[in-house]
Amino acid sequence: SVVFDFRADGGLVAPLRQENVFACAATRAIDDVRDIAVLEVDRVPAGRLPPELASGQPATGDTLDVLGHPGGIPMKEAPDGVVRETSIRDAFVLYVDAFAGNSGSPVFDGSGRVVGVLNRGEPDYELIDGCAASRRLANGEGAGELAIRIDRALAVGCDDDPDGHACSLLP
Question: Region 18-41: what's the mean pLDDT?
Answer without folding.
Answer: 87
